[in-house]
User: Fold these one by one.
Assistant:
Number 1:
Amino acid sequence: MPRSHALVTSLLLLTGGTAVLSAVEVGPPGSGLLISGWGEALVRAEHHDAGNPKNTQAGTPGAEDEDDIDFSADALLKVAYNVDQFALRLDVFVTNEPQFNDNDNDGNNVILEQAFVDWKFHDLATLRAGRFRSTWIGWEGYHTPELFRVNNSAVWSWNVRDHGQLKNRPFLSDGVSLTLTAPEDPLTLGFFIVDDVLGDAPDAKGTDLAYGINLTWSPPWLGQLELGAVYDAKSMTEDLAGGSDGAAIDFNIDITTWQDSGWFFAGEVQYHFHTHLSVTGPEFGDALMWLVMANYSINDDVSLTLMVDRVDRGLDLDNNEILEVAVAVLTRPHKQVQLNFEVFHWDESAPNADAYGAAAVLLVKLP
């Protein structure tokens, strides 16, 4: 989506505008029906060199540098219902601007982000079915309450790119998962079978599914470690004609050891196996990307973030790397309000392809 997000594993209760959303119970006490959400307004001012991928003229003859100021607004409504060992979750995202260049989905102004049922059929096991966010391979967070900056990171931008149809698409999965928890240790093991994760090649069939696994360890003295892997059949395009299988592995870490002193650290490394990925030209080779982030809480209502991330889209191609640096200020002027600011610089190894800019977001949570 056209905003950045911090690591999914950073959904910890942090100061400086990153608190977990509250929810209001609907109906009589104990009904199990909860509603929450938020609305926000964003503004961005950005410069894109002629060859930058975000330049609307990129790749066309006579492309020129481009400056842009954009205002946008959106809202997220969350509904949760719990009854005995079953839980229902619905998330609907509504925005004034289309989120993805996908004509099949009516411009994506309204997106059903999540619609799943959890069945905790055992104290140590939960079955999930429906649509849910792709989180088992260490993807980043989704929206302002979960993030540590305002715009997309370069890592997110490459991950949200459909490697089969070469368009941006929602980072969502339709399928089933099984989550197992250890009785004594902070260990969680998850298995997933979903429609796709990395993309759908032009010749992909309905039986070409994605299979994922992740292992999470959350010791209280450290924070959280997560290792994930996915194999996605027919997910990579070959010159916009045929297709090949793809895979990815991810390791990410959140460090909360020094949270009492105001510090939070996170890092992520991903490797994508797509040797034969090609777009009317040479094959990309595999992709390597990493991200590191530090957040310091000045007080309960203000924190500072420094994020550095790098993406090599294809190890077999030259001038295909990105190095991005972002600095953000996160504030909470009211317990229900977040006001965040950011500046960033996007350095492409290709000539005349850099970008830089600033952004701000004002968010109000539902009570």
Number 2:
Amino acid sequence: MNLHSRRWLLAPLRQLRTHRLMAQHGPTLPYDTAWALITLASAPDEADFVRAWATENPDGLAGVHYDHWHTLSETEQTRRKQWLHRYRHSPIQLLHLDADLIKSTGLHVIDWGPCANR
């Protein structure tokens, strides 16, 4: 099966995983970045495709960056504490993507900063 057909057939599953990652991560993860992360996690051989997309749509300094815990709302802090208590890692960290791969593709990813109480 050629790459174009495979992308077309797997698109609904990838969209479902993208929306799930966005819901788990919270409001700081845009759809395009979530889609690129899911693409890298599910098909690492498509890194060139993600790299081309990131080149056409620059979004800041490439790599994984962290938000600041103290700037979050009380609700978001509670939600993240519950998630971290249960899974011990952020949703992006659970994808097990290498930070160098993310940086080499040109993605600008904002992950959860360290918890104030950890």
Number 3:
Amino acid sequence: MFVPGLSRFGRHLSQVTVSQARLQEFIRAELSYFAAQHTQALSLEQIVDASTPGKVARLVHKEIPFRFAARIRHIEAVEGWEKQEELRQLHKIFLDSFSELRLTEPPGTEECSLTVSDLTEYTEVIRSVRKRHMPVVALLAEAIRKMNHKDAWMEGDAFQSWADTFLVSRISTEMLTSHYMAVVDWHDSASEASELLGSDHIGIVDTKCNPGRICEQAAKAVQSMYANATESSAQQVADKLQVEVHSHSDSGSEDSTIAFSYIPKYLFYIVQELIKNSARATVEACKLDGRRRLPDRPIIVTVCADQKQIAIRIADQGGGISCGKSEEIWSYLFSTSMQPFQEYLESGSPLAGWGVGLPLGRLYARYLGGSLQLMNVPGTGVDAYLFLRRIDPSSAEGVPRASISDSVAPV
């Protein structure tokens, strides 16, 4: 619902001076309207189809306000949210971004004819929104941690549903804004991204994503975490931690490269989190049982595929999950690592620390039509199984649609 005179990008509209009170009244009305609508989960088909600057700008402009409005109401549905510092910050982040987006609109009416230069100001708005939302997952995780040490403000199952809905919406909006920036960069002749991405990319989607290579990159990233740690004991782990990656095609050959259409950074985040959990468990197991050293307990990553799906197994020898903890590991209230909050804010991964990583990783997998399962072998270790569907970006029938919505969940 566009309001003439308030948009920065309406080329033929005169500037209108509006009082702060009237502006706030307008935003409240817009918020009520958008929050009342039901949103559908995005499909990879919609992302791939938005392959030009004009198309992706229109998709972002259409979809994101609904999701931000829903998140604002989602926070307000929590009793006493105003007394929780992190929830107040989250509320302000979403309200500021919702307001900024509703006071802007991509110029023109022919979506496919827009160029990168036409969208210069709108791109800066999207860039501003992305920067503002960087600490969202961290703030939510900190709110969870604080509330977990006080009286429960929500029953376990209801809380899981609330957090799932919040984070699914985060996935969809982050996907949209990331795709917008990738498409704009690709079409910007002055951008290095157009040379770096190559013709295999459609925005953030890599049509020839190599899961084996991504697993290797994730393994190196985890080893670097230990190498760059301040504790000397952690630095020693980096030299001894063994992660082996083996890829097998549907023919069973390790020489054949597996490639499929996917969003590489999301696959990297999920695999990195799984390897990190395995590494932590393996290190702890070595402390408890010194008979087998770290090099004797390699983490084995196996990547295989057939014509319909990609499967990644990450097997460790970290002793397995303690009795009674198998279900808790999927809870946002459970964590084996308390990463310092400031370090979390500065982390490059949206899955790092605070116990949010594993359940959020499962949401990422599910959102794009896959699944993440853990098989506990008591006294030995854990096998994590990540299944991802092959898709054909050119075929609507082959594109998975998420089965989880990001509208407001009951509280």
